[in-house]
Amino acid sequence: MTTEQHVLACIDGSAVTESVCDYAAWYARRLNLSVGLLHVSDVAASIRRDLSGAIGINSRQFLLDELTQLDEQRAQVVNSYSNALVQDAKSHIQNNFDDVEVRIYQRRGKLLPAIEHFKANNNAIVMGRRGEDHKNSRINIGSQIETVARASQIPVLICSEKFKEPSSYMVAFDASKTAIKAIKMLANSNLLKDMQGHIVMIGNDNDTSKKSLANALTQMATAGFLVEAHHLQQLDAVDGLLTFQIDNQIDIIVVGAYGRSKLQHLFLGSITTEIIASTVSPVILVR
Question: What are the helix (H) ranges across 97-158?
Fold first, then answer.
């Protein structure tokens, strides 16, 4: 496998697949990378299993044979679906981003191990906010997102709506190590350069946090970014951030991903999850 970097687009055939393809191609174009289209087929366990002892080896063997044939047919259907899906996705990208190279990856099993298989190649990961299993829910972010984001050391872009080329961005800044890492990542990347940027901090009325916000602004400005810093006073961080986003017509949000442990998240909730679930705009998670 080549070690050339790509933006890994995780597609599943749901309604957000086209959005995932478009944002992955946009991301790849901004950084002069290719797109890796990944479809993972999670084939269910055999319906045959080992039933010989239960129904009789001799007299009922034909039933086991038929069940084996059904397993094979199901596998063929899954393969055909996967092939059609990735080819359609590749054609879509090539029709809309003809300067972006597209590679196809198909694997069986679970999504996270498949993503980690390409760890050396992944520059970023793009996923849909609502997978096929949650296509009718606008507040459910999908069962895979937190799992992937917690395991990933690279940016994860979450999208859901029809692609709109971003021209502005907002960094949700809380002076945490994760937020500082997000600023460093942006300052060292061309992804959002030449766009209007905003670094927004809610509350945190202490000198250390204020100094951290000023340092973040300086770091981005020194790197050549057009960016402003905002220190707002709102009772609820998520409401304050999303209100600012709407009022300023910001296209894309950057947020630190799951800074607390998973155990803490169970009891305290997660601002990261709330932001993803409460906005239809694309969100870039930085772990």
Answer: 111-117, 145-151
d(C-alpha 164, C-alpha 241), whole Å: 20
128 DSSP β-pair partners:
159
Strand partners, 246: none
pTM of the model: 0.86
Q: Retrieve residue 206's tokens.
A: 């202490």
The Cβ of residue 161 has, within 10 Å, a number of other Cβ atoms equal to 13
Tokens of 217: 């602004």
279 within 8 A of 242, measured Cβ to Cβ: yes
SS3 per residue for 213-230: HHHHHHHHHHCCCEEEEE
Please state the φ and ψ torsions of residue 32, each to the nearest 5 degrees.
60, 50
196-202 β-sheet, strand order: 102-108, 34-41, 6-10, 122-128, 156-159, 283-286, 252-256, 168-172, 196-202, 226-232
Q: Does pLDDT of 133 surpass 90?
A: no
pLDDT, tens digit, 9 for 90 and up, residues 61-80: 666 777 777 777 777 888 89
CA distances from 275 to 75, 87, 121 (A): 38, 33, 28
Alpha-carbon gap, residue 72 to 46, rounded angstroms: 9
Query: Beta strands of the chain (E only): which ranges?
Result: 6-10, 34-41, 102-108, 122-128, 156-159, 168-172, 196-202, 226-232, 252-256, 283-286
